[in-house]
Amino acid sequence: MAGAPVRSATSQSGKMKKDESFLGKLGGTLVRKKKSKEVSDLHEEGKNAINTPMLPSGTEIHPEDTMLEENAERNMLDPTSRENPKFKDLQRVLIDWINNELEEDRIIVKGLEEDCYDGQVLQKLFEKLSGRKLNVAEVTQSEIGQKQKLQTVLEAVNELLRPHGWSIEWSVDSIHAKNLVAIVYLLVALAMHYLAPIRLPEHVSVQVVVVKKREGILQTSHVTKELTSTTEMMMGRFERDAFDTLLDHAPDKLNVVKKSLVTFVNKHLNKLNLEVTELESQFADGVYLVLLMGLLENYFVPLYNFFLTPENFEQKVHNVAFAFELMQDGGLKKPKARPEDVVNLNLKSTLRVLYNLFTNYKNSE
């Protein structure tokens, strides 16, 4: 075509060689950078392998772990334990309990780690349970203020729980660091001590990764932490009674004891033309328990004080709890069993309550 510019093969060839030369240099630079990064990553991986020879797979080492002082250690919850259904259920039960206790304070807890670490919720919970006002600032934003509040709260808690055999598995630093295991330990202890109207999941254990620094090297190990055992074993931290001894050392006499208790309660309930044949089921709604206390103490219990025909779980719990109050009014110690356990047909709890009445009123007519 006339007038059209014509490029020589020589100029095109030169341009291609120039481009190839440029791309080659660029590619070489990229390759060198990639190899350099691989070497750096490999070096870092080797360094970590040396510094953390026993680190379980899937466990992250946090920056603060590398800053540990010599012979210091730090604990963290194993990621697999965090997803444990029973551990999640335990947290849910504790959260529901706290929210129920602090409903009047309009406090709503959504997560134990984020809502308990600063001491505000723990302060309100302890004050509600103990009926004791703590001398602390209501609102504290600074870390120092939060730790001072925690110090006051935990001193009061430890003073209360330590004489009853509880192992102190929490501290100001662990709670403020949002250590979930320490927070759960604390809440379980409070719930059991104050006979919270909840049923904690039994046999809940978690794996905790312990990071230690020895001679400049980080070492890790797994430790199993038992957060709950059985309700009865946890209640056993408190003073044992004669019924515990009977069950531990003479379980074969259980039927004999049950027959004796049936005879005892019927001796009194027969006055109202009532008769018991099954201890665990017939006392579960609390009605016979309330009537029995009236007969033993020689007074009439007004019917408006309890539900004569309870229709749901809450009404049955109310009846049993009311019977417990009557026992305390009669000079007996607060029953070790929880009203919920009696309502839930827990035989041992029911027998313990009745055995306590038997030992105190066996000579009553």
From TrEMBL:
GO terms for biological process: actin cytoskeleton organization; establishment or maintenance of cell polarity regulating cell shape; lamellipodium assembly; substrate adhesion-dependent cell spreading. It is found in: Cytoplasm, Cytoskeleton; Cytoplasm, Myofibril, Sarcomere, Z line. One of its GO terms (molecular function) is actin binding. Keywords: Actin-binding, Cell adhesion, Cytoplasm, Cytoskeleton, Repeat. Its main location: cytoplasm. InterPro entries: CH_dom, CH_dom_sf, Parvin. One of its GO terms (cellular component) is actin cytoskeleton. It holds the Pfam family CH. Residues 1-22 are annotated as: Disordered. Residues 88-195, 255-362 form the Calponin-homology (CH) domain. Belongs to the parvin family. PANTHER family: BETA-PARVIN, PARVIN. This is Calponin-homology (CH) domain-containing protein. It comes from Oncorhynchus tshawytscha. The lineage of its organism: Eukaryota, Metazoa, Chordata, Craniata, Vertebrata. The gene is PARVB.
